[in-house]
Design goal:
- Helix 4 (108-126) packs antiparallel against helix 7 (204-220), helix 4 (108-126) packs antiparallel against helix 10 and helix 9 (253-262) packs antiparallel against helix 10 (274-286).
- With 817 residues, the chain is mainly beta.
- The relative contact order is 0.06.
- Helices cover 13% and strands 38% of the residues.
- The protein has a six-stranded antiparallel β-sheet, with helices on one face. Strands 12, 13, 14, 15 and 16 form a five-stranded antiparallel β-sheet that branches.
């Protein structure tokens, strides 16, 4: 066969050869379109020249390409170049299981996690009527991301009429023949089931046999069935029993039982579902008592993953937040839920700014983004059946977590990157850049769709890493696309179309292939699909569900509340809640920014009084003479209101049509500057006597007034750019000069405040991995001192300039001299 090193196959540049065998030569290649490395299996020339076999192989390859699982090496496509055919597959680095076994038998605590992941891969494929047919240690890779099963189903797809023998049968070429006929042998001799060895038709039970043979070899360091020739090995498979005494004495009883039931020669007596083996291994890994002697009813319930007894309801107050969880068991008009409240450590605080709670696909585990004493914000895992809350190493600064479909990984955003981390411990992998992300979702096809920031449309990237490709385009200034959620099948996605001006948004459905967008409903919150045929979303502070046809994208009936007082962030169109596809349910309670009460405090923390009644307030600023307060409040939209402190009079200052937010006072108290969320800063006289005028406009971004310099001639603004995230600009008020950049680093900077004497500037930056408050000399920025410790935001100067206040992660206000 011709060497392809240095040549191209379609848009793949071949670099090095990494394998060879009867099924074709394998190369490492670079994908020029998606910016990733792949494995290329170049099919034998004789094979590619046979139209009938090639047509059958293409049909098989399409089926195999549908497999998307964390423990299965993916098939990306089939390419043709200069008469050669090549299969494009996921490149998996690491050692094979065969190489690991060659160093000696694996201890039980090392072998069982590997066996569990192999079983999960087989279970996933079997549920889709796909059989591996050639499972063996050389087809199993041990990588930093866990176990990967290679060449799934290729023994059938690539079958030919060749047979071979080899003294090292664990590495022998796959013995193949016309796989659609009876009387042929498929697989590798040492791992063939008896029915394969006899040339009979096979089903998933052949893989269960091979799984038992691989597990036996891991634990003993030797093959369960062996011989000096292929014929002797096949004879051993059909007649001999494994040497059970070779198993180490530490092998648990239920693992021995799994092995014996996998390696029964009569397929009718063999373990019928690899999922049963997976559950038994999970029970052993969890330390659960062996229930093999329990009643058939209870054992059957455990195999199906159904609780043998009702879920108890427990009460809890965890700091200021309660987290409830429940399960939808059937598909009624209003899904009934069993709820259990989870206790988190008292010092933990969930991320209130972003979607911080996600339920695993199996409904058993919740992942949260939270900070705790001596811990910056990171990801934590908590099983519903456990009291332990476990941090995930390497996830500092994590926001917007989301699960992989198989529950093996959690995706998240940190350090301006999209990342993923194995939930059972392992190396964090960076997938791609994401400047200021607004949510992501992981499809069953191994793709992640995400919002890289509020100024761009949705993008899609392989979960294994690569260059993101755009999916949606913003259609007007100030529009944002965020919080995507795949619908079943992984071809369509729900997402939120919001606005930087915080006006009500709507939910759309995107067809990934055609790029067609279909409006679903007007809504102030994102919507999440339930496998019960409902959408879950927020109305005010109520979490509701409503019937939804995922085919027609039509809602039916009326929304029905399932939880009240659910924390909701109208800035981000999301809150502290999640409902998995199959109905596992968790939420946090809290008022959030809705109905805030203006309250005065002294610097000792004593409450002095209130101003007005609770209102939906999202921004406020006190006038220089402390006699008035300007607020941004929402009725039908956001408008500015002026409070006269002495008289308690509440007067509306703006009346649309543009929303008004982020107000600040001029130094003389005569003018109020504010943003619209659409890249514009406006000015309006504080007495309301004149119309608002445009001070500065920067299309395709947003501008937020931060503070005025004490000389009254400079305004500090925050803006956001795709390249550098949130930055700080300085605008000169006395001329039309474009604003200059004050802070424009790869980190996000905001909350900029110039000191009363004009010599210093406070800023919040996340360059350390979490937000901290810093002070610099102004305007030179020479010197830098960190004000906060263990996190801080919203730094403010006291009027005398001799102290600084900031908000700590636990919501305390801290004063620093």
């Amino acid at each position: 066969m011709t060497s392809w090193i240095g040549k191209s196959i379609a848009h793949y540049r071949v670099t090095t050869q990494i394998g060879a065998g009867g099924m074709g030569e394998v190369y490492r290649a670079s994908d020029s379109r998606l910016g990733r490395d792949v494995a290329i299996k170049v099919l034998p020339e004789a094979f590619a020249a046979e139209p009938e076999r090639m047509a059958r192989f293409e049909r098989e390859a399409k089926v195999l390409a549908s497999l998307s699982h964390a423990n299965i090496a993916a098939i990306f496509g089939l390419e043709e170049s200069n008469g050669a055919r090549a299969l494009v597959m996921e490149l998996v680095d690491g050692t094979t299981l065969a190489e690991r076994i060659a160093k000696g038998a694996l201890p039980v605590d090392e072998a069982l996690p590997i066996a569990k992941q192999i079983a999960e891969a087989l279970e996933y494929a079997h549920e889709r009527s796909i059989i591996h047919r050639d499972l063996k240690p050389t087809n199993i890779k041990l990588s930093g991301d866990g176990v990967k099963v290679l060449d799934f189903g290729l023994a059938k797809a690539l079958s030919d009429d060749a047979t071979a023998s080899n003294s090292d049968l664990s590495k022998s070429p796959t013995l193949t023949a016309a796989s659609t006929k009876l009387g042929v042998i498929l697989g590798t001799a040492a791992y063939m089931s008896p029915e394969q060895a006899k040339g009979k038709a096979v089903d998933r039970r052949a893989d269960i046999w091979a799984f038992g043979a691989v597990l036996f070899e891991m634990l003993t360091g030797r093959q369960a069935f062996a011989g000096e020739t292929v014929s002797e090995t096949l004879a051993s498979v059909m007649k001999d029993q494994p040497d059970w005494d070779a198993l180490p004495a530490s092998t648990p009883a239920r693992v021995r039982d799994v092995l014996r039931r996998c390696l029964v020669k009569d397929p009718k007596q063999r373990l019928r579902d690899i999922g049963d083996a997976r559950i038994r291994i999970e029970e052993e890994l969890s330390g659960a008592p062996d229930t093999a002697s329990a009643t058939a009813t209870t054992a059957g319930a455990k195999r199906r993953g159904i609780p043998a007894a009702p879920v108890a309801i427990v009460a809890l107050v965890a700091a200021a937040i309660g987290v409830a969880a429940g399960f939808v068991l059937r598909k009624p008009a209003v899904p009934p839920m069993f709820r259990a409240t989870l206790t988190f450590p008292e010092e933990m605080r969930l991320d209130e700014e972003n979607a911080s709670i996600v339920i695993s696909p199996d409904g058993r585990t919740v992942a949260v983004a939270a900070s705790a004493k001596d811990h910056p914000q990171q990801l934590w895992l908590r099983r519903f059946d456990s009291d332990a809350t476990t941090p995930i190493a390497g996830t500092n600064g994590a926001t917007y977590p989301f699960w992989s479909p198989d529950g093996r990984f959690v995706g998240f955003f940190a350090d301006r990157k999209l990342k993923r981390v194995p939930t059972n411990g392992g190396t964090v992998q960076t997938i791609c850049d994401a400047v200021d992300a607004r949510g992501g979702s992981w499809s069953e096809h191994g793709m992640i769709i995400f919002s890289p920031g509020p100024l761009t449309g949705l993008e899609i990237v392989p979960a294994s890493g690569g260059t993101p490709q755009p999916l949606t385009t913003l259609q007007k200034n100030g529009e944002t696309h965020r919080l995507p959620r795949f619908l079943p099948g992984g071809k369509r996605v729900l997402f939120m179309v919001g606005s930087a001006d915080l006006s009500p948004g709507h939910v759309e459905c995107l067809d990934i292939e055609s790029k067609e967008r279909t409006p679903v409903m007007q809504c102030r919150s994102e919507a999440r699909y339930l496998g019960t045929g409902h959408l879950a979303f927020m109305i005010d502070d109520n979490l509701v569900v409503q019937r939804f046809d995922a085919s027609s994208l039509k809602l039916a009936g009326e929304p029905v509340p399932v939880a009240e007082s659910v924390q909701f962030n109208i800035y981000r169109y999301t809150g502290g809640w999640d409902i998995s596809e199959h109905g596992a349910f968790a939420y946090t309670t809290g008022v959030g920014v809705e109905n805030g009460q203006l309250t005065w405090f002294d610097l000792e923390g004593r409450e002095l009084g209130t101003l007005g009644t609770p209102n939906p307030i999202v921004g406020l600023n006190i006038s220089p003479d402390a006699q008035r307060v300007v607020t941004s409040e929402r009725a039908d939209q956001f408008d500015l209101w002026i409070w006269d402190v002495a008289r308690g009079v509440h007067t509306c200052l703006t009346f649309g049509p543009e929303p008004a937010a982020s107000p600040i006072w001029s130094r003389d108290g005569r003018t109020i500057y504010f943003g619209t969320g659409a890249g514009e800063v406006l000015a309006k006289s504080a007495d309301g006597a004149s119309a608002a005028t445009t001070v500065y406009k920067l299309p395709d971004t947003w501008l937020v007034p931060e503070s005025m310099a004490p000389n009254g001639k400079e305004m500090l603004l925050s803006t956001q750019l795709r390249e550098t995230g949130t930055d700080i600009l300085v605008m000169t008020m006395v001329d039309s000069t474009a604003p200059r950049k004050l802070f424009a680093s790869p980190a996000n900077e905001d909350d900029a405040r110039v000191s009363p004497d004009g010599r210093w500037v406070l800023v919040t930056s996340d360059e350390s991995g979490q937000p901290e408050v810093y002070v610099y000399r102004y305007p030179s920025l020479s010197g830098r001192w960190q004000v906060s410790s263990d996190g801080g935001v919203n730094g403010e100067w006291l009027p005398n300039g001799r102290a600084i206040l900031y908000r700590a992660p636990d919501q305390r206000l801290i004063q620093v001299d």
